[in-house]
Queue: 2 jobs
Job 1
Amino acid sequence: MAVTFSHRGVCISDLAASKRFYTEALDFAEVIDYGVMDGPDMAQTTDIPGIRLHPVMLQHRDGPRLELLHFEAPPAFGPRERRSTLQYGLVHLSFYVDDIDVSAERIRAAGGHVHEETRGHYPEGRTTMLYCTDPDGVRIELMHSEGVAGRFSHSGICVDSIEASLPYFQALGFEPAENYVLDGGYEWLAKVNEVPGIKLRAQMIRDGEGNTIELLKVFDPPCFGQRERRKLNQLGLTHLAFWVDDVDAVAAELAARGGSWAEQTRVVMPGIELYHGADPDGVRIELMRAIR
């Protein structure tokens, strides 16, 4: 049962604006423009009737891929504001940078927003952190740490239970890595997250290719929000996608570890089989099998 992480997805309101932002501010490059995709198979796998979708794949200089999803029909919906780090689901994209002020200025110049009030200093790691947002409000975490070169770091998920989420992602090839328990009511942490008194655990998990996900468990205050699959045309981070060699085997294993599947989304199209489900906290998971 082979599983390979493919990409992260983000629903956007303006394709040109988002391409400019991610290429000019964050060192991605366009690698595939799929053109407009529609028809009954696309409507079925996305669970969106009448869909006209224009996806574009970007790749970071370090390798990770980000799929921009621009919906011509039906239009994307939802607030274009940063989600709370207390809200279940996909939270942010995180980058180490060589100079946090230079990177923040690049974000401003490329159409993003810098939230200077979130700047905080993690004394143990000698790390400065600052939240910014893309043109649609997706959280972009900038981190500067002495001796750490600029690179893509990870994406974050707010979870109800790390113990429940970890076995699920182990079935997708991820294993526990660094673990940070920050339950002392630190002022700097409250400032970064804009949550007074926040106490949390950040469990990093990593696959064999170096792809990293942060499982974020907040102890206090309580988390909130739905733990169900978001619609793909809801603005913001949308899904995690994986290449697999056996859709049935991987789907069954993930279901046994707390995941769920939407049977109606499974389709076989020319060259590819697609199936959509969710992790224990409702994060959309897309399985893809290449057909030759």
Job 2
Amino acid sequence: MTAPKIALVTGSTDGLGRAVARALAAAGFQVLAHGRDAGRGSELLREICARGGSARFYRADLASLAQVRALADSVQSEHHRLDLLINNAGIGTAGGDGHPARRQTSADGHELRFAVNYLAGYLLTRLLLPMLVRSAPARIVNVASVGQYPLDFDNLMLMRAYSGMRAYAQSKLAQVMFTLDLAEELRNSGVTVNCLHPATLMDTTMVRSAGIEPTSTIEEGAAAVMHLAVSPQLDGRTGEYFDGLHASRANAQAYDPQVRQRLAQVSAQLTGLG
């Protein structure tokens, strides 16, 4: 009997990530579900197992690079392969209850949205790359957004002119840039890397906490993520940005190799990989 494929989904105890975790389990994957809340993690595992699926929960706060490293260590020590990595965890634009976000920092002193939405996924992916390459064919899916703001390396941590929207949007563009670079790096390795804007203003906690009326469903977003994660149509396709189910174009800055090279250097330095 063939062992099930293994998928790690960050931010999978709520909203889009939870829907994707359930869908992957239903498709026969063993799901490694990540989140910050052990109670919600246990609820998700019970739900998946009740439907005949297989899942394990890993608790980590992605605002701490030390906890990102611990998550990677746990996955590597407890599993012999990893077929799919979905970097989904993130912080939205608002501070909660519809109030504007104030500037916050991570455990490592980095602007919080940049740290959680981008640096954590960058580090986790880098640490798990050998495992993914050994498991090829494998896929990496980065959940980005159509909301993208050009990076200003003189103000990357937004010490000036802070807004939650700008912080969120620049972190999402950084995800797209990382996707393009990593896809080229892994070309011919059997590991593909793509990113997407899953759906606009899904009915999630992130959107509701910003005081915004949802315009699409979590199911729409989950279908788009699953398309990149498992569809045979995506076999061999890499380094692409999708808007929902369709290939699209990201912010123009994403296609500037000099900007991407500088982001790569800064990212390695900030995560201790440089």
